[in-house]
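Two proteins were folded this term; both appear here.
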Amino acid sequence: MIIYLKSKCEDILLKKPKTKRSKRFLENRAPKLAEDVKTAMIMKGGNTNQTVTQALKDIVSSLMMHSVRQTSKKNITRPFEDSTSLEFFSKKTDCSLFLFGSHNKKRPNNLVFGRLFDFHVLDMIEVGIEKYVSLSDIKNSKCPEGTKPMLVFAGEAFDSDIEYKRLKSLLIDFFRGPTVSAVRLAGLEHVLHFTAVEGKIYMRSYRCLLKKSGCRTPRIELEEIGPSFDLVLRRTHMASDDLYKLAHRQPKALKPKKKKNISHDAFGTKFGRVHMQKQDLSKLQTRKMKGLRKRRGPVDTEDKDTQAPKVAKVES
């Protein structure tokens, strides 16, 4: 297993910035505790057709907010054979995701979703477009640009198959958008639905319509807005388990500190345990009632116990 890390030679060759602009540039590229939003690099291969070109445009314009387009020129590269050009452009544009489109006789209408770790390819999955409906073909009103989508994954393969699990993780990285603390109800209007059935992946895009229901909770209807894809899984390049675990490592400063005597259940309800000293319940102040008042004179318990019980006479 090869783990790509920075060597000492690279650190020696790095020079100190001479201008404030270059200093700001290096500080922006430096590792941070709270990383920036992941940016995707969109590339076209040496041979493409109208379907692949339009699919890349629709994905960028409607689904991905943070992307860098490299579609003005054709990039004669093959990601599964040689990924050096992808790593070079990712380091140049500071992108951790890439989407590569190509078309040839052996693999028509081809898309490659991939991500990088430390500017080296971590994993990538190749899918083929069997059926495609563009944005312009569906004449419905669209969601505003920049709307954070809700991602829905249906199908047992996304939970059981390793390749589909990685594909699910890749799609979440591509379409999740920025991390926000709160979302208003009217902002939950874009739904991306992925269904895995019989070796195919169906991707649909919907808009949520809030209708009147006669009560406080509105009635929700889904309206397809496009684009829609029927995809089939092709080649995959998976990272090793050790490298995949290394890419998910978090710094200690971001790990939540464990708090004593606090637990959560499966639904996220917070429970706390409070430790107190033993209480004397005889001194506990309660509501005063006439029936609970103490008698004035002291009662001798020993004499009370020795007294013979009274027997009632019964007349025959």
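Next, the second protein.
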Amino acid sequence: MRELHFKDYFWNGELTCTGGYDCIVQHLNDGKRTCKEIEDFMKARASIEEKYAKELLGLSKKVCGHNEMNTLKRSLDMFKLQTEHVSLSHLQLAQTMRDEAKKLEDFRERQKETRKKVEQQMDALHKQRAMQFKKTMETKKTYEQKCRDKEEAEQNMNRNASTSNVKQQEKLLTKTQQAKQNAEEADRLYMHNVSVLGKTREDWQKEHIKACEVFEKQEVERINTLRNMVWTHLNQLSQQCVTSDELHEEVRKSLEQCDIQEDIEHFVNLRRTGDKPPAPVLYENFYSGQRVPAGPPSSRTAPPITRRGPLPNPDNTEGDVIYSTVDPGYSALQY
């Protein structure tokens, strides 16, 4: 299948028309705008990555499991460390994206300078061609008018050849010769301008072909650059995922070494306070030295009742102290 090229399909039927050329230039302007949009996209994505990386880095510095110990502590420390590494990898990714955006900006500027030179040259040729075409059309108009004047003079002289005197005939002949001379001069000028216009047209046509080739080459480079840049961008994002997963894998490996029973035993050995529980609190009767366990009875039968006999009579005879007595039927336990 035959390949299509700019130089073959952007001509116009009218010599002064620039529709095909303008169509190509408009397409290149749209392509330049696309380059700028992709460049801005890369910069914005880099800013997002940088912001995320900084927030993630700050998060990795926060206290997390400070009071933990042994294998779990090591796993949490590894978790924080790898979170920091992930944040640093995102910072690096942000810088890489900025570098790619700078490359695209430089590429866009180079194409802009190349296009500027070609467009300036083509604009000059378009103006020259338009001016020469206008000049040629004016000389053509003059030439046609001079030819009509010549024919009119000849016809007038022929009509008055038999009726006018010699002096009038000489006057008509002089006028006819002058008209003929003017027509010939207009003819030479018209032919000269047509020749100049033909040369101008050839020069413009050659430069138009060259410009189309330059513009097509730029378009090929632009499409290839944008395609490769987006492809590279996606590869960078995929590599970031791989890097993050490798860092996360280190945390998973550390978690695999986290032994629950070992951590329990480590805590017991490090902080244990004793291996015997406290003794039960015994009941102590206020009136007796006998102690009754304070715990619940071992059976459902009531404990034996201990009764106390009468208190001895006081020896104090002073009479200023009153001693109370307990009724013999008093019980220390009530049910």
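Helices lie at 6-9, 19-60, 70-159, 166-256, 260-271. The first helix runs from residue 6 to 9. These notes refer to the second protein only.
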